[in-house]
């Protein structure tokens, strides 16, 4: 049984923005069988030049190795192009999307650069471990560790430890939400904001899942990702992967929730925003009714991504 929807917008395929419709028309038909993780990763790499324009210049980038529970992983550090070298910047710790299975530092390189430049901030992008090679809670553990590492190394990174936010898209939005929960009572890391772009919030499929075809992410594709990351059904109720099911959301940092109309995750994203607000968290919701899942990382073909980045920039400015 699905939960009653509180949707403010119920998308049908005829309502899709022209740019999104044109994008979907260019896509090949889905394969008869689901792609392997390796095939999906290669497909994402090949699609990158078609989805993203040339990389914007930033003041600097640098990669660091971070020791984690499962070994060392990489993070990539950016400083916005209009920032001063001696300025302790606000910083967003960013977790890329890709269903915990695909994506890497390069898949979201353009987006991290764009946010750093637009918000005059630093961004630390996290190359967390992927499933199915590393199942839950590996990605969650790396996300928490990376955020704690940024706070502990604020002087080295020349960022302000009192102005740390977390953000991410899709599976990365899930990680940002769960990191905010994990660090809610951490005296050493006081998050200023959480930016959740079409986040995954409930792995139990409690909420309506409305798209089987015609969109970038389908119900079946989402189930495949979840099966790779959290194969155990009972584990999917753990708040570390299903933040919507956490016992309490009180005391969390202000949240920006960005939702796309053509997305099987819309209902659970809106439900999370609704519950945050009900439990006293300051929430801003931005609806993009004609857009599909993943639009923010496809700026070359879907210009509405720039509007979402402007929303992120404004929210960071108000909470940093």
TrEMBL record:
Record field: compositional bias (Pro residues): 27-37
Source domain of life: Bacteria
Keyword Chloroplast recorded: no
Region Disordered: start-end pairs: 20-40
Keywords: Hydrolase
First and last residue of the signal peptide: none
InterPro entries according to UniProt: AB_hydrolase_3 (IPR013094), AB_hydrolase_fold (IPR029058), GDXG_lipolytic_enzyme (IPR050300)
GO terms for MF: hydrolase activity
Residue span, Alpha/beta hydrolase fold-3 domain: 93-296
A Pfam family annotated for this UniProt entry: Abhydrolase_3
Sequence similarity: Belongs to the 'GDXG' lipolytic enzyme family.
Protein name as annotated: Alpha/beta hydrolase
Taxonomic lineage from the root: Bacteria, Pseudomonadati, Pseudomonadota, Alphaproteobacteria, Hyphomicrobiales
